[in-house]
Every structure is written in structure tokens, then in C-alpha cells.
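Intended use. Records like the one below are meant for learning the mapping from a protein sequence to its folded structure. Do not use them to infer anything beyond what is encoded.
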Amino acid sequence: MAAGTMATAAGAAVILYYVWLKKSAANGVDGGEEGEDLLKSSRSLKKRIARRPAQAPATWLEAIATISETLRFTYSETLGKWPIGDLAFGINYLMRRQGNLQVASVFAGNNCVELKGQEIKEELNKLLRLLTLCMFFSKKPFPVFLDFAGYSEEDVLLHKPKAGLMKPAFTIICDKDSKCFLLLIRGTHSIKDTLTAATGAVVPFHHSVLHDGGISNLVLGYAHCGMVAAARWIAKLAAPCLLKALSEYPDYQVKVIVNCFVFSLIQ
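Structure written out for the chain above:
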């Protein structure tokens, strides 16, 4: 508790110091050599933040810098652009507009085909079960989740129960009934998860897609900074565990369930 309080106070001090430097530079405040040193330190801080890769912070200093940049970005994209009255009106308008939209008007098109049949129902039931599992993992204590899903401690291959900044809570479960390894990633559940979501600056997300041991596609694009950092952190921890499990059970699939989405990685 004491360490968390100290870290919060230190982060607030850094943020206030950074804002003061910005205002001093904007107003042309000249404090001699001391003022020049402060401006130089401000510029170096900007460069460090700008050049810092999209990855989870490894130290308290990196965490403080990330929080500072997150708050700066959030302010610049909200109150830095619009008055609070306009923001409140816009949020209320969008909520009302989305509430009146029909699902078909958003996702459907003229060339959509209605899917019918027992196989479709079975597939949807499987997806519903996976989403329900992820919901219980996100909302319930871990022992309650295991009991609800019918798993035991032996089925848990990896478990990270506490979320950090850009480090979501997740677990890997071996589901013997469906012959799947389930990577369940918890949704927003704490202030650290909220800060991860708020770190919304655009960062490069260039990566290659591997298929049969070779590169099949090169993807060039940009993505949400917090999501990229969280995905890289999870992949770094989960990949060795999954590769070891797949070597023992090569006929198993890997499915990733992220709060409300299901991805099948290996067929």
C-alpha cells in the first residue's frame, strides 16, 4: 500500500513538473541558465517518450513516464480540443444514436446471406460458451471460475491473476473435452486496465505472418499503443507455454478469448 501511494505521488509530481515546463516554454519564461537547463530536460523527456517502443513498462520510472504520457494524450484529445460542455453533449448524442441503431443496419449489407442449419447453431453455442467462460474469468474469483467451468488446477497451464500497466490478467487452460488450449484475457477490471485502454496513441505495428515455417504475408500498419504493448507482453509469456503444450498434444487447437472476441489460431 505504501509503495503504491509513493508511486502515485511521484507520478503526480512528474506530471505537474512536465505541465509547468510546457507552460514556461509557451510563455517564453527566461530563467537564465537554470531555465535553459529545464527546457533542455523537457525536450529530452519528450524525445524519450516519443522514441519509447510500445511495450509494457519494466521499471517504476518507465511506468511513471507512461502514465504521464497517457494523461497528456488523453487531455490533448478531450479537454484540449473541446470544452467540457461540448464533450458531454457529444457523448450523450452518440449514446442515443447507438441505442437507436439496429444491428443489421450496422453490420449487414445487400449481399449478406442468412446462415441456417444445425451446424451453425452448434458453432454459435460453442462461441457462446467460450464468451461465457471469459466473462466468468473476468468477473468472478479464479476458484469460482474453475468450478463453474468444470476445470481443476491441473488444467491450468499458466495464470497471471494481477493486472499491471499494459499487462492484462490472463490464463491458459487445457480444455480436454474440446481438445483446445484456451488463452483467456481479462477485460477492463481495474484502474491499471483503464490506463492501458487510455494509452491510445497511434504506434507502428509492422509484423509478418508465418505459415509453414515461412513468411506468407507482411503487414504494415498502425495500432493502439496500449493494445500493442499488452499483446506483446502476453505473447512473450504465453508463447513458450503454448509451444510446449502443443508439442505434447499436436492435435489440439489454440483459441484466444479476449473479453468479447474469440480467435482460433491453429486449426
